[in-house]
């Protein structure tokens, strides 16, 4: 039996696992417009879905992480009500399920959704309700997905301990972990040690945005001082890798440690190019890190800003680096091994969903 063609329609049928996806970076353009009208937000840069989608993609492609982050002003602005939060979460679950994402961890920063009087607990409650509704609706359509929510603290603010406490409080209601995000330069992860200590004291999982716009010091702090379970992006780990003649690679102590400890890298190819973390997809270190057997995972980061999906990210990587179905299966299993859900649940998804799904495609 020959392998299935590795094209976008077929990749859409493959089971996928997603660890790094921002809720406020994945809205449907039409939803942004409708929610803006409902809440009276009049600062959108376009008045129809196609033009708005193009604006987000263009504005996010500046090559600057700071400029990229400015696009979220518009999406966050329309996610300030119970109805808005629930709708965005519901549609997120449906869109991912339609792309055959069988497991996803979706993150957002509750502290950014308080402008209309909601409390942090209310923000999380309504978002989780939206995810539950979306998962149930997807199941009715024959599409199975499990979603875990990550609560993010903004690294330039001073609420990280409060958000970590919130993550622990909701850990049995759909929240699976904690994260810090935002501009890296000038905001090292070590400023939030009390939040990470709270997570460790409660045997809870967390990831840290590190090594995207800033280099090895950010990664070192995230691992050595903060104890991160995973690295959000982490592309700059290649600053500690020297490639010599015959493509022989020499790893520095930090890169060696990351690989030895199997610390997962939440790589987001399209987004990494947009923010200037890498010059182009062809120069993305994904393939180097995959060949060196780092635990690489494929992620979307922000589906609206990057005009992408998990299937599209996989096809781009396969086209650029010559990957086959076995490679895509390995990256998916890497993600499932690294998920913030109990081991038996990870194993069940790998053995009962991921492997059988790829066996059909591998032929």
Automatic annotation (TrEMBL):
GO terms for biological process: adenosine catabolic process; hypoxanthine salvage; inosine biosynthetic process; nucleotide metabolic process; purine ribonucleoside monophosphate biosynthetic process. Pfam families: A_deaminase. The record marks 233 as: Important for catalytic activity. One of its GO terms (molecular function) is 2'-deoxyadenosine deaminase activity. Its EC number is 3.5.4.4. InterPro entries: A_deaminase, A_deaminase_dom, Ado/ade_deaminase, Metal_Hydrolase. It catalyses: 2'-deoxyadenosine + H2O + H(+) = 2'-deoxyinosine + NH4(+); adenosine + H2O + H(+) = inosine + NH4(+). Binds 1 zinc ion per subunit. Residues 15-355 form the Adenosine deaminase domain. Zn(2+) binds at residues 20, 22, 209, 301. HAMAP family: A_deaminase (MF_00540). Keywords: Hydrolase, Metal-binding, Nucleotide metabolism, Zinc. The active site is at residue 212. Coiled coil: none annotated. Catalyzes the hydrolytic deamination of adenosine and 2-deoxyadenosine. Its cofactor is Zn(2+). It comes from Rhodococcus spelaei. This is Adenosine deaminase. One of its GO terms (cellular component) is cytosol. Belongs to the metallo-dependent hydrolases superfamily. Adenosine and AMP deaminases family. Adenosine deaminase subfamily. The keyword Metal-binding applies.
